[in-house]
Amino acid sequence: MSDIQTKIGGGVNKLQDSIKSGKQKLQNAQEVSQHRRIVQEASEKRSMEIHKIGEIIYKRNRLEEETDSELHANIAKIKELDIIMYQAQQKIEEFQQQEVEGRVCPECHTSVSEVDKFCGSCGTEIPMPTPTDDKTKECHSCEQEIVATAAFCTCCGTKQS
């Protein structure tokens, strides 16, 4: 009988060792995961701070408060992207304005009269057209048309003189 007890005892010991090993691996995996999360969070915060620094430098260059010849090529690329985004936003506003001028409900596209404040079909509030200032000038930086009285360009943010 002692032979059977020895085999059972050996099997129990192996099982206990296996459980201990599994627990250790699980603890290690949890710690690795925790440290990876710390690295990920720190990396995201770091990226946000670098982004903030970049925004500050970018704004200073655009306002001509600080110039750095190495940054001019990057600033020019950003200006191009600013113009593309600005023009796309202007197109969106034009389409939305056409919808209002045509006096169509923005929700259900039912025709409404010039004096309707709400859609008769769905009850959505109908935006009223806003008056526009026709006096414009060209931005000296990006050459986009802006309101003549603007202190800063609505496209690129450059201070107007």
Taking all Cα atoms into account, the compactness measure Rg is 33 Å
Strand residues, percent: under 5%
Total DSSP E strands: 2
Average pLDDT reading: 81
- Estimate the global geometry from the Cα principal axes: elongated
- Total domain units: 2
Taking pLDDT < 50 over at least 5 consecutive residues as the criterion, the unreliable ranges are none
For the biggest sheet, the summary is:
2 strands, antiparallel
Distance between the termini: 102 Å
The sequence of SSEs as H and E is HHEE
Give the oligomeric state of the chains in this entry, treating copies of one chain as homo and distinct chains as hetero.
Answer: single chain
Strand order, biggest sheet? 1-2
The secondary-structure class comes to mainly alpha
Count of separate DSSP helical elements: 2
Helix content: 55-70%
Domain DZANK-type: 105-157
Region (Disordered): 19-43
Biased composition (Polar residues): 19-32
Pfam families: DZR
Task: Show the helix and strand layout.
Elements: H1 2-62, H2 72-101, E1 136-138, E2 145-147
Summarize this, please?
This protein is mostly helical and 161 residues long. It has helices spanning 2-62, 72-101, and strands spanning 136-138, 145-147.
Record keyword descriptors for this entry.
single chain, 161 residues, mainly alpha, 2 domains, 2 helices, 2 strands, 57% helix, elongated
Structure characterization notes:
It comes from Salibacterium salarium. Residues 19-43 are annotated as: Disordered. This is Zinc ribbon domain-containing protein. Residues 105-157 form the DZANK-type domain. This protein is mainly alpha-helical and 161 residues long. It folds into 2 domains: 1-67; 69-130, no CATH class. The chain has helices at residues 2-62, 72-101, and strands spanning 136-138, 145-147. Strands 1-2 form a two-stranded antiparallel sheet.
